[in-house]
Amino acid sequence: MTSPLRRPLLVGNWKMNLTMVQSIELGKLVAGGAGAASGEVAVCVPFTAIAVVREVLRGTNVRLGAQNCHWEVSGAYTGEISVDQLRDAGCQMVIIGHSERRKLFGETDESVNRKLGAALKGGLTPIVCVGETLEEREAQKTWRVLETQIEGGLKGFAPADLSKVVIAYEPVWAIGTGKTASPAQAQEAHLFIRSQLKKIHGESFSAGTRILYGGSVTAENVDSLMDSADVDGALVGGASLKKDFLRIMGFQTAR
Ligand code: PEP
Q: Which residue blocks in 4-141 are alpha helix, DSSP H?
């Protein structure tokens, strides 16, 4: 039986999209659908929209998050934002190590690890992203990549520190490409990730940690992905900017 700690979680990643007015509109749409959701719902919005979306979500059970943070609390880090600033602005979660940040902005397992420490210390729920590129998959390196990212990202924390951590398996070849991992591929990778969590911190940590799938999740494929025993939710980019996200929030499974 799935651990009650693994309540399904549906997260929208709005990336670098939307004006404040558009963010308010989309926030209202999500808030309006929250009552019919099949799990917890969160939106990770651009920094500029945090304050206005916070007001829209006030009194609802939709959680608010950001898409990145720095590991320091404050200081001379032009252009960066700290966990304390995010929490002060109303965030409860933060995405760490998204593949776009790894690929385009030089994020490494080491920076992921430092950011994770900052998020945990600052009381934000971290969503740590891992996933292989197409070249790595084709070269049969998927498991090695996931193992390295998990070990490097989670290094140095006790299981109790990591009780809030959420892992997102996001195969890079499926992000924004319209190519989704099949439910069997997702399940296989999630099971592998769970085995790595068990290797690091034992059975109860592994069984109680949520692992989300991300990569071209749509209103059409969410049900079959969520049917997999080790898929505990979804991290959704493109489809989270549309009405389709309401259908994703209300996924239905046979399990
Ligand atoms: C993402 O940005 O995390 C993502 C999974 O994007 P998309 O759903 O558009 O593939």
A: 20-33, 50-57, 83-89, 99-105, 109-121, 134-138
Q: Evaluate the CA torsion angle 48, 41, 218, 29 in order and state its sign.
A: negative
The pLDDT, as a whole number, for residue 43 is 98
Residue 199 in any domain: the answer is yes
Per the annotation, the verdict on 25 as an active-site residue is no
With a 6 A CB cut-off, is 240 part of the ligand 1 pocket?
Answer: no
The confidence score (pLDDT) of residue 1 equals 76
pLDDT tens for each residue of 167-192? 999 999 999 999 999 999 999 999 99
Q: Is 97 in the pocket of ligand 1 (CB under 6 A)?
A: no
Residue 24 maps to which CATH number?
A: 3.20.20.70
Q: What is the DSSP letter of 241?
A: G
Q: Is residue 57 part of a domain?
A: yes
Is residue 201 annotated as a catalytic residue, yes or no?
no
Does residue 185 fall inside a structural domain?
yes
Task: Tell me if 177 is assigned to some domain.
Answer: yes
Residue from 175, 213, 245 whose mutation best tests the ligand 1 pocket (most atoms within 8 A of CB): 175
